[in-house]
Amino acid sequence: MNDSLFEQIRAGLIVSCQALEDEPLHGASVMAKMAQAAAVGGAVAIRANGADDVRAIRQAVLLPVIGLVKRDYPDSDIYITPTRREVDELIEAGASMIAFDATRRPRPSGETLERLVMYMRSRGVMTMADVSTLEEAVYAASLGVDCVSTTLSGYTPYSPQSPEPDFPFIREAVRALSLPVIAEGKIWEPSQAAQALEAGAYAVVVGSAITRPQLITERYASEVRKAAAAAQAGQTPRG
């Protein structure tokens, strides 16, 4: 484990700067500027999707860059750094750490979780295991990953389906593991990020609430529509 990197991110905010191809902010240059804004705001590291974005962000900020590649394969539901192909791309791009789906679901092309972790360890790259349950977290730790993240809680069909961050999972993982537990997933409010740290998280990742303006706008627009409808209903004369 790279003690220097973990000291840098301890009790800090990691900002996920990602935009998929169908999103308005897609593009490495845009994500590099987003990362710069996050750095100015106090982020301790950046989580980024794709080798091009990782490369551009590394040039734009001095923060560690946690890289991943989201790629769909027809024979698997796993899309966060599913195979060695994505690992090689991220290593070449200079990612400080690689985040990957560490659930035990079938991987593309016969790849296995065990072989993928072994490969990353053989390449000397740091690893962040994205998991959805305590069982997955414990198993990932047994394979020798550097840290686990609660990223996928609620995004697998067998994990708790809640709109709120999975604080019980964070607390359970912290108690069960001797390696850093990173809180990520459905954290929309600063108070929730603070609550994750209070639950024992080593650091907190926030993405959509900071870097995806279409989703932020959607949340505001929904509340405004509800308020407008309520106000209109209140003004309607009753029989």
Structural commentary:
Strand 5 (126-130), helix 6 (134-142) and strand 6 (147-149) form a beta-alpha-beta unit. The model has no long low-confidence stretch (mean pLDDT 95). The protein is globular and about 65 Å long. Helix 3 (51-60) packs parallel to helix 4 (84-93). 44% of the residues lie in helices and 15% in strands. The longest helix is centred in the last third of the chain and has 23 residues, at 213-235. The N and C termini lie far apart (71 Å). The protein has an 8-stranded parallel β-barrel, surrounded by 7 helices. It has helices at residues 3-9, 28-41, 51-60, 84-93, 113-122, 134-142, 167-176, 190-198, 208-211, 213-235; strands at 13-17, 45-49, 65-68, 97-101, 126-130, 147-149, 181-184, 203-206. With 239 residues, the protein is of the alpha/beta class. Converts N-acetylmannosamine-6-phosphate (ManNAc-6-P) to N-acetylglucosamine-6-phosphate (GlcNAc-6-P). Belongs to the NanE family. Pfam families: NanE.
**Structure class:** alpha/beta
Beta content comes to 5-15%
What would you call the shape?
A: globular
Number of strands: 8
Q: Percent of residues in helical segments? A: 40-55%
User: Which regions contain 5 or more consecutive residues with pLDDT less than 50?
Assistant: none
- What's the mean pLDDT score? 95
How is the main sheet built?
A: 8 strands, parallel, barrel
Radius of gyration (Å): 19 Å
**Tally of DSSP helical segments:** 10
Our measurement of the CA-to-CA distance between the termini, rounded to an integer number of angstroms, reads: 71 Å
Order of helices and strands: HEHEHEHEHEHEHEHEHH
Enumerate the strands of the largest sheet in spatial order, edge to edge or round the barrel.
1-2-3-4-5-6-7-8
Catalytic activity: an N-acyl-D-glucosamine 6-phosphate = an N-acyl-D-mannosamine 6-phosphate
InterPro entries: NanE
Pfam families: NanE (PF04131)
Function: Converts N-acetylmannosamine-6-phosphate (ManNAc-6-P) to N-acetylglucosamine-6-phosphate (GlcNAc-6-P).
